[in-house]
What we know:
- The chain is mainly β and 134 residues long.
- The protein has a single domain, classed as TonB (TolA/TonB C-terminal domain).
- 10% of the residues lie in helices and 47% in strands.
- The chain has one helix at residues 62-75; strands at residues 10-13, 17-19, 37-45, 51-56, 79-80, 83-90, 96-104, 106-117, 120-127, 131-132.
Amino acid sequence: MAHYPLALGQIFTGGVPRDRPAPVYPPELVAARLPPQSLEALLVVDTQGKVREVRIVDENDARQRLFARAVREAVLQWTFEPLRASRWAADVNGTPHDVDSEAQPFRARYVFRFEWTQGGPVVNIAASPAVPVR
């Protein structure tokens, strides 16, 4: 995956979730009490912080497709703090100032783990760092 180059005096901020409803364990699979199932998803987030695309790594069988559908339905409701590239420069006194700032699209990878805990279905979500997209 491509990363944004970081210029001298430039920083990235944001790219963190604002609202992140969890996927719902597929009702069709509740009675089966399956062993833990993990799904990896790549989220493509626009400059406004909205998820525009969800790429599921593995949806080969019917069960995985049900979990993938639950992930997509939830994740397309997520919103993120926009990822901003800001450029800073120091004035004649050495005090840093924000010169300009621009929102950037980015990708974020998440792992969704569907499992049974204390008699009920639970979905745990783990994230990896945001990956800017060019």
